[in-house]
Amino acid sequence: MAQASLAAPLRRYCSQHLFSPFKPRHFLFPFSRTSSYSLSQAQALRPVVSPSDRDAIDWEEERSKAARLADRKSRNELKREARRAVQWGVELSKFSPSQIKRALKVASLEKEVYEALMLVKKAEVGPRRKVQLVQEGQSNDAAALMQAKRPLMRFLRSLSKRTDE
Q1: Count of domains in the chain?
Q2: Percent share of the chain, pLDDT over 70
Q3: 119 to 23, 48, 94, 142: CA distances (angstroms)
Q4: Which branch of life, at top level (predicted)?
Q5: CA–CA separation, 76 vs 54, rounded Å?
Q6: Measuring CA to CA, which of 19, 42, 65, 131 is 20 to 30 A from 161?
Q7: Residue-number span of the structural domain to which 150 is assigned
Q8: What is the pLDDT of residues 72-99, one digit of tens each?
């Protein structure tokens, strides 16, 4: 009786796939033209997730979504940071090139930041005029790099001013 109950699913499987015109009959003809992909897909097992694990996974996803939303800044905050970075770059460009190189080396900033600061140094800066940069794309990259090192650069700027006086 136990053997008959175990054989019933096998009989159903054989009857479904044996007479189907669309299914490969790889168990009857081992040398038939069935792709290894279709065979591996038929035999692949899906991982079983218990209800307690599912709740934990959902909780982690919700927590990560909340963290992403909290980390996201508003457009106005991003604009303020960009303005601060540009002002910081203009102030830093008032130093001599050797001082700028020294400060950027200590802060371990990229070469593009130095090039952008040299562009700011060469550009016309007036009280009512905007800074006109030759290569705007470089200045945006430089502003982002400088923004990350802002506290260190404030300290270096104050040190440079003290040593020059």
Answers
A1: 1
A2: 31
A3: 68, 60, 12, 11
A4: Eukaryota
A5: 38
A6: 131
A7: 75-164
A8: 777 788 788 877 877 777 788 788 888 8
In a domain, 69, yes or no: no
- pLDDT tens sequence across 128-151: 444 444 445 555 666 666 666 666
- Most confident range (mean pLDDT) of 12-16, 62-66, 139-143 is 62-66
In a domain, 32, yes or no: no
Measured between alpha carbons, how far is 122 from 112 in angstroms, rounded to an integer? 15
Can you tell me the distance from the alpha carbon of 128 to that of 84, in angstroms, rounded to the nearest whole number?
17
Q: How far is CA 69 from CA 63, 64, 66, in A?
A: 10, 9, 5
DSSP result, 112-129: HHHHHHHHHHHS---SSS
**Residue 24 within a domain:** no
Q: What are the structure tokens assigned to 155, written together?
A: 């300290």
Given 3-state DSSP classes, what are the helix, strand and coil percentages for the chain, each rounded to the nearest 5?
Answer: 70, 0, 30
* Chain-centroid distance, C-alpha 79: 21
Q: Specify if 42 maps to a domain.
A: no
